[in-house]
Amino acid sequence: MRALGGVVSLVVGLVGTALANSAPPAPTGGAPAPWEPSVPLVRFAPQPGRWDSLPRVSKAAPTPWPAPAGCGTASMLGGAQLHPGDSAAYDTLIQDAAKRHRIDAALVKAVIRTESAFDQRAVSPAGAMGLMQLLPTTARRHGVRDVFAPRENVDAGCRHLRMLLDRYGGNERLALAAYNAGELRVDVAKNVPAIAETRDYVDRVLRYRAAYRARTR
Question: Does the pLDDT of residue 88 top 50, yes or no?
Answer without folding.
Answer: yes
